[in-house]
Amino acid sequence: MVRITRRAALAAPLLALPVAARAQAWRPSGPVRIVVPAAAGGTTDIMGRLVAQFLQARWNGAPVVVENRTGAGGTIGTLEVVRSRPDGTTLLLGNIGPQAIGYSLFRNLPYRADQIVPIAGTIRGPNVLVVNPAVEARSVAELAAMLRARPGEIPYASTGVGQSTHLSPLLMLQMLHAQAIHVPHRGSAPAQLDILAGNVTFLIDNLTGIIGHIQAGRLRALAVTSAERHPLLPDVPAMRETMPELANYEVNTWFGLFGPAGLPPAAVASLNAEVMAMLALPETQQRFTELGGMPMPGDAEVFAAFVRAETAKWAEVVRKEGLLLDAG
After folding, report:
1. Distances (CA, A) of 260 to 77, 111, 235, 269
2. Which of 4, 74, 153, 204 has the smallest count of CB within 10 Å of its CB?
3. Domain count, the chain
4. d(CA 100, CA 106)
């Protein structure tokens, strides 16, 4: 569990903060809840609790709580925020699934992109392909051979329909011309429990949320989804270098803070400045390094442009794959 104490949070020198952080006078009118559209224990949840603890300390102990609202690939939690009052007391710790992939993947998505305001990025990083240690495959090529020998029989877990952990393996399977059984879960923690128990063969999860199991030897990493190898796993190849069929494979995931449309610009600017102050803390940077991720600095406009670009990228991937699902 990520923990940033109030003492540590307040220890950052005032002059080290961005000008916007010192200039903004906006504060929430009451207790704040950060909706996490995923189960406890995964990266989305970790980021939500990290931001909540930091904001509570910065706001002199004003309550900031995390509420997990799981289901439907993150759309249930997102819809709850969309329907909330735009006063800054209800926020969303979103991710690549419901805030980018979902717009093109689901035919009946109950919200639109313009109903959510991007506030600040938090962390980004690759996914990683892992197998249970009992699985014989010790490389992507060996896993591919298993999949081709038993088409449509081998189960794999994801953290939810429409998440990057769903499309990442699906893209891999399409490139390999292989089939497998998708077993979706309501978040990273239950998906990890399933593969740790040996109920599924493989999982492509966020490196930030599963690195501990890899380092402890509880799971075997076969490849990372980024273009290059990751410094925390230097002996684990990038997916694109494992097989000729996967030469063009590349996926990265990300997480950030959002609010409902209509959120006052002063609130957006203040919240962005607070998150940027959190990212600047040595404690945060060290924790992100341990998780295998990188901070996402930038103002709200920079983050919004990034989200738009990601949405367009995944829309093309979904179109090429011919995917269209029902939300819920």
Report:
1. 12, 11, 42, 14
2. 153
3. 2
4. 11
Q: Which of 200, 230, 246 is the last residue of a domain?
A: 246
Q: Which two tokens stand for residue 168?
A: 């990442």
E-only strand ranges, the chain:
32-36, 64-68, 90-95, 116-131, 155-158, 181-184, 202-206, 220-224, 252-260, 294-295
Which tens digits make up the pLDDT trace of 190-237? 999 999 999 999 999 989 889 999 999 999 999 999 989 999 999 999
Phi, then psi, of 241 in degrees rounded to 5: -100, 0
Is 1 inside any structural domain? Answer: no
Task: Give residues with Cβ within 8 angstroms of 102, minimum separation 6.
Answer: 73, 74, 75, 78, 109, 162, 327
41 and 183 share a domain? no
Nearest-angstrom CA–CA distance, 173 and 178: 5
SS3 296: coil
Give per-residue pLDDT as tens, 45-71.
999 999 999 999 999 999 999 999 998
User: Rounded to a whole number, what is the largest CA-CA distance in the chain?
Assistant: 62
Tell me the whole-structure pTM to 2 decimals.
0.80
Are 143 and 223 contacting, i.e. CB atoms less than 8 angstroms apart? no
Domain range holding 197?
A: 126-246
Six token digits for residue 231? 């410094």
Classify residue 285: in a domain, yes or no.
yes
